[in-house]
Amino acid sequence: AVYFCCLNQLKFSLVGAGDSVHSQQNSGSRAFASGFLARAVAATVMMPFTVVKTRFEAGERQLSVLHTMQKIAMTERGGLTRGSLPTILRDAPFSGVYLLGLTKLMAAAQMFNASSFLPPSVVTFGTGLVAGAFATVVTNPPDVIRTRMQVHAEGISVAGRGMTAITLEFMRTEGVVRLFTLGLAPRIVKKSYQAAMTWALYQHITDMLALSARAAAQLGPEPLVSNK
User: pTM for the full model?
Assistant: First the structure.
């Protein structure tokens, strides 16, 4: 919700069939900037919940989300913001690359008139899957480091250590290639499908709202009835 509110404030929209050539050429940079800024704000606001979610996924179950937040805040200095930088370095570029790829793929789909033999929702979902998979591969290294910073893995101490130190230790002990391959398959399945579904739903809702607004504008204001 925070992400899409930011996108609405930035007034981002996918390239349309009736856009000018100049507008289509600028759509890529506009999409990347909009996605990057919107996701950076959303990631910062939601960071405490991201930390708790990561702890839960790692098996550190507590009574509730609020109880876990309270415990982290009281026992770990800066615990609720740990991993903020790698999270932003993962989420903001992911969103930027995703919207950039989605914009270009949608423009290509319109060029080949894909909507003539496929429903628009299928085109949006399919292009979203491809764009999401590509963006996940590009941003996998900061996601690996974020997880390592936020989870107390067995035999690994991350308390009080920065992203650079943890990244260097990871590359020394596990290799550079692991930054790009560790957890990549489940991330592609999860993030590409999630991004495609979310964006398809967002596009459907915004299109419906736009149609309703145009219909209301064509009807015009209702005439006032005077009582005599």
Answer: 0.71
